[in-house]
Amino acid sequence: MVKLEKTTALDTAYLESLGFVWHTDSDESAYVSKTLVLVSEKEAEAYYEATNTLYDMFVEAAQHVIDNNLFHDLGIPFNLIDIIKESWDNDIHWHLYGRFDLAGGIDGKDIKLLEFNADTPTALFETAIVQWAILKQNGLEEASQFNTLYESLVNNFKRLVTLEEDVSAFEENYDGWNFLFTSVKGNSEEENTVRLLQHIATEAGFNTEFAYIDDIDFSAEDGIFYKDVNYELWFKLIPWEDIALEESDLALLLTNIVKNQKAIIFNPAYTLLFQSKAILKVLWDLYPNHPLLLETAFEPLENTKQVEKPIFGREGGSVTIVDENNQALESEEGDYSNHKMVYQAYTELPTDSEGQCYQAGVFYAYEACGLGFRKGGKILNNMSKFVGHIVK
């Protein structure tokens, strides 16, 4: 049973003062839970070690995909292959941050990788700001979390210049580069997440600006412009696969901008290799029976309870849990059923006294740096709740 500690919920006015405006779900229930998951120091350390190990494994798997031209197997759109290779081969294309979704880690259950949200991960604001605020507002020890996400992002922004672990040389090497942060219009969650990242980059020392993507000019020869200012660095909270499939002209422009060294894009295009759930099958091939992995294949597993999920999908959409006889037990409707599917062995998530399931999310920014949880049904959808934690 998941161990929980009750707290006083943060009121909506306070949350909005932080810039957190997606605090209430469509059924008028609170999105942020007023309980915290109790995590031991040993469990927190295990999440840290597991996430760092997994990241190294993903790097090896991505190199394997590139070396063996397995882009089709991963469902990578053909018009992104060049920019993926270009960004992978040059160290300046730094992976800013991502989030691993993990089963287990608490309640005596082994940690198992579910997937890696490497390109456009959500729950950044919740993990870095909101769960810290819960401790502060409830008079709890603010340092009692596995949560250095904010500070880790500050340092990782500086590494875009230093390209090494030591960030002390940032100021002497920073050459006044302009950094543009972008989201689409009409999505307050995405916009405020991007504005948080912009704030962190400003704190790190960059010249920053925010713009909606429709207001930006792109030139293959000259780079990225907003209000006649050239931006050498561009962050976009827009999935690479959406750019490839829905904005093919932009995909070509961005490929040429990167090839011509006119801008660096975050997260880099190669993070789509990590993002594709098909890489879970590559990982199993490279590391069979690894204790952090679940068996994954491109065809249904025989005589195994498993999860069928699209290689590109979000919030549980188009996911089905099937039993050993390939009969559906639970499913979630979604818009991703046209994507290729992978089949991953099922693992039980830790549950509370009400039968709610808990899934850990661990952010990675140069190293594992921030833990948070989502709770909901066996398939976590867009009605799942964010649950903070406290280390005791």
Explain how this protein is built.
The chain is built from eleven helices and 19 strands. It has 392 residues and is α+β, with helices and mostly antiparallel strands. It is globular, with a radius of gyration of 21 Å.
Short structural summary:
The chain has 392 residues and is an alpha+beta fold. The protein contains eleven helices and 19 strands.
Protein traits:
alpha+beta; 392 residues; 11 helices; 31% helix; globular; 19 strands; five-stranded antiparallel β-sheet
Strand order of the largest sheet: 1-2-19-18-17-3-4
Task: Tell me the β content.
Answer: 15-25%
Low-confidence stretches: none
Order of helices and strands: EHEHHEEHHHEHEEEEEHHEHHEEEEEEEE
Mean pLDDT rating? 95
Q: How far is the N terminus from the C terminus?
A: 17 Å
Radius of gyration from the alpha-carbon trace, in angstroms: 21 Å
Helical amount: 25-40%
Overall strand count: 19
Give the oligomer, counting copies of the same chain as homo and different chains as hetero.
single chain
Supply the number of helical segments.
Answer: 11
What general outline do the C-alpha atoms trace?
globular
Given the helix and strand composition, which structural class is it? alpha+beta
Q: Report the sheet with the most strands, covering strand number, pairing sense and barrel closure.
A: 7 strands, mixed
